[in-house]
Amino acid sequence: MSRLKQAGLVLSGVCAGVLISLTVATSASRETAVSSLPVDETRNLSDVFNSIKQHYVEPVDDKKLINDAISGMVAGLDPHSAYLDQEAFRDMQISIKGEFGGLGIEVTMEDGLVKVVSPIEDTPAFRAGVKAGDLIFKLDDKPVRGLSLNDAVKLMRGQPKTDILVTILRKGESNPIKVKLTREVIKVRSVRSKVVEPGYGYLRVAQFQEQTTADLARHIDDLYKGGELKGLVLDLRNNPGGLIDAAVGVSAAFLPAKSLVVYSEGRIADARRKYHAIPEEYGRGQGDVLRNLPKGIKNVPMVVLVNGGSASASEIVAGALQDYNRAKILGIRSFGKGSVQSIFPIVSGESAVKLTIAKYFTPNGRSIQAKGIDPDYVVDETSNGSSEPLFREADLLRHLNNPAEQSAPAENAARQNNGRNRNGNNSAEIERFEPAGKGDLQFEQAMNLLKGLPVATRKPESEGQEPSAAASTPIKTP
């Protein structure tokens, strides 16, 4: 059985997972007044450009220099802003639709190497045992150090059924690990469901894509074909996020109509928005895809599962359901990405810039940025602890502060890290299990919570690793 992977945030890479996009702007700046360029700094840029053109040991293409300069300028803002060249822009558009080619890993760059954020379920990388936190050292015979993230991703992509040898460095392993992977067309299955026992349903949302809300409605209908449900588990673990309208749609399936789901605050008018549980906010031009949901779905007792790989759109859903007391949150603290990105195509339309334009807030005004969602019931993955993520939002360089925090980012990160691995366990001793399968302690405890049975919550660090049995009562709906 494959172990539930602890994932982090998708910063860039094979799958665009954490993009929360308010809109795709039709123009980068044609209708907006452009600030005048600073003369001295522009002259410095021109001087550096000319020096490279005249003196660098090898000739460099003008387009590459300009693109690299743009990339550096945007990347210096925060971890989630990025310049998307023609190929990266096309790849992002494809990945949002939920189907793309590659190996099935979400990656970022760290210390000149490509770090695996998370392997995607049921993909070549996942099946081969690639783990979150692995550092990719070589792709075939080409060292990764010195490549940009986009260049490394291009090497990993290729025609389906072609092979690539990936050499990785793994914490705790003295020698590099070589893994031969066969490329596939990656089809991310956004929603899965099953009736786990009579009267109890399980829904898993892996990513928030264009069709997620409509897919969710179909799965809910399937769950109710056997009769009314007495309880429902919504699994958002290792879900790195996706489209904001999909997050609103998933929330709307369980909340009263017109409920405020999330709001955002930023400098520009388009960044200051409120999202409600109405078809105009989640229908994507298809009308009300939730109109025929079984009536019981609005009141069925619910538990939402989260972990350190639950980010962005996942946190929007968990935060909204928690604020309305519509569901209890169970698991370990989520990733903590509370910012909004928007795609602004460059005038040519062949490339784009992805910019952080706002921070989002739960209905009760909570910011998740660099903090995450704290579960109502803190429960480890297994009786042997949790495989905590190697990093969260608060650990990322140049991350945005939580509005409620006045200290510097580095201090926030240190504070987050102080409690981060409490009772956690990153060793190979963590048991392997399938989500909602045998050995999935969080799912088992969610079922206990729904039934009013004792819940094995994590004890404080001073009390040791063994979970305590917290009393619970059946979840009551508002």
Short précis:
The protein is of the alpha+beta class. Helix content is 23%, strand content 24%. The protein has helices at 39-55, 62-75, 86-96, 124-127, 149-156, 212-223, 244-252, 279-282, 313-323, 409-418, 441-451; strands at 12-13, 21-24, 82-84, 99-102, 105-110, 113-119, 135-139, 142-143, 163-169, 177-182, 184-187, 191-197, 200-205, 231-235, 260-266, 273-276, 302-306, 328-331, 339-345, 352-361, 377-378, 455-457, 468-470.
Written overview of the protein:
Residues 93-171 form the PDZ domain. It is a single chain. The protein has 478 residues and is α+β, with helices and mostly antiparallel strands. It has two domains: 103-187, Pdz3 Domain (Roll), CATH 2.30.42; 191-340 and 356-470, Alpha-Beta Complex (2-enoyl-CoA Hydratase, Chain A, domain 1). Helix content is 23%, strand content 24%. The protein has helices at residues 39-55, 62-75, 86-96, 124-127, 149-156, 212-223, 244-252, 279-282, 313-323, 409-418, 441-451, and strands at residues 12-13, 21-24, 82-84, 99-102, 105-110, 113-119, 135-139, 142-143, 163-169, 177-182, 184-187, 191-197, 200-205, 231-235, 260-266, 273-276, 302-306, 328-331, 339-345, 352-361, 377-378, 455-457, 468-470. Strands 1, 5, 6, 7, 8, 9 and 10 form a seven-stranded antiparallel β-sheet that branches. Strands 2, 3, 15, 16, 19 and 20 form a six-stranded mixed β-sheet that branches. Helix 7 runs parallel beside helix 9. The longest helix has 17 residues, at 39-55. The chain is globular and about 75 Å long.
